[in-house]
Amino acid sequence: MRFGKPRKIKVRRLKHIALLPTLVTLGNILCGFAAIVFAAGSMAEGKRGFAMDASSHFELAAWMVILAMVFDALDGRVARMTHTASKFGAELDSLCDVVSFGIAPAFLAFVTIDACGGIIPRKVSIAICGLFAACAALRLARFNVETTTDEEAHMSFRGLPSPAAAGVVVSLVLLRCDLAETRFADGIVLALPFAVLASGIAMISNTRYVHVVNRLLRGHHRFARLAEVILIAVMIAIHKEVAMAIAFCGYAVSGPVLWFFRKPAPAVPEAPPAPDNPDDIA
Questions:
Q1: Which of 110, 86, 123, 90 is nearest to 36 (CA)?
Q2: Hey, where are the domains in the chain?
Q3: Which of 16, 78, 140, 171 is in Cβ range 3.0-4.6 Å of 94 for a Cys bridge?
Q4: pLDDT tens-digit readout, 55-76
């Protein structure tokens, strides 16, 4: 029995990449990796009994995730400004986001909950944080399928963006570190699993969220908008941990709130069917 020659499959090879946007995107994943390293370091220091060192590792891990958000906000805009936006860049960005805004904040949340005296059962915290990481991966895969490189497609999101979900987690971790010596610390640890779970579900929901950065940077705005930005900057300067927690949690809640109060589009009345016989018209 004779077999024909195997058919050759032509493989598309990537010949060129945009250097500057790629370097910015890689800065994102390096920050995410650093966040995981610092979170693991906090766990090690906690087991050795060095509470102060463990707390500093918590804070460094959270700030690394926030720095990754800066790189994530810049890479797409740099690519569009330099006219080098590509499918490769979008895929690389999502792969980096899975690490920085999925795995890193989920691991940081688990370490925080686990290090705070076992207020939440360990199996429950593992399940919740694992679900958050899975939802981030699903959210980013859906984004890759639905998004385009057109600027108009980046004015809103379907589902809570993964950087904002990670921001909810790390801002609460930072707030807990800042209030560690107060009676509010245990309350934040109790609220953290619920915030992680809600953020994960919000990522894979169909709720629309505004793209804040693109809305602020594009076009002209009222003078009141400038006053709002200045007020937020002043709040961050006065107490950055509280301001970031309010900002990220407020943005996460804004989607469902705007959906609830959004007025439905007025129904268009249907035209009456035309009579079969024109003589029937009175």
A1: 110
A2: 19-261
A3: 140
A4: 788 889 999 999 999 999 888 7
